[in-house]
Design goal:
- This protein is α+β, with helices and mostly antiparallel strands.
- 37% of the residues lie in helices and 43% in strands.
- The chain has one helix at residues 62-97, and strands at 5-14, 19-27, 33-43, 48-59.
- Strands 1-2-3-4 form a 4-stranded antiparallel β-sheet, with no helix packed on it.
């Protein structure tokens, strides 16, 4: 019997009680690893989360995982700077208005 083995899954975002985005890693029967970022919906009939066709699946190898990691680090750096600048602007606004 051949089947896809899920190795990792993490909920990333809930848009409401019936939709969510999931990051997962799985292994195919022939040994290839893939990662998927995709939408799932909650089926009240089956009472479980079911993946949709909306999303992206890419091979998991050293190149793709390094590119993904670099991209996430860049995004975190941008958000950190935005957060710092936001606090700096708020502090300077308070001191000039007082």
């Amino acid at each position: 019997m051949s089947y896809i083995k899920q190795l990792y899954a993490r909920d990333i975002y809930f848009s409401d009680h019936k939709n969510k985005i999931v990051f997962s890693v799985f292994k195919l029967p022939h040994g290839a690893y893939y990662m998927r970022l995709g939408k799932h919906f909650y089926s009240s009939f089956d009472e479980e989360w079911i993946p949709t066709k909306e999303g992206v699946t890419i091979p998991l190898n050293i190149y793709t995982s390094t590119c993904l990691f670099d991209s996430l680090v860049d995004l975190l750096a941008v958000e950190e700077v935005k957060s710092y600048l936001g606090r700096a602007v708020n502090v300077s606004d308070e001191t000039t208005s007082a």
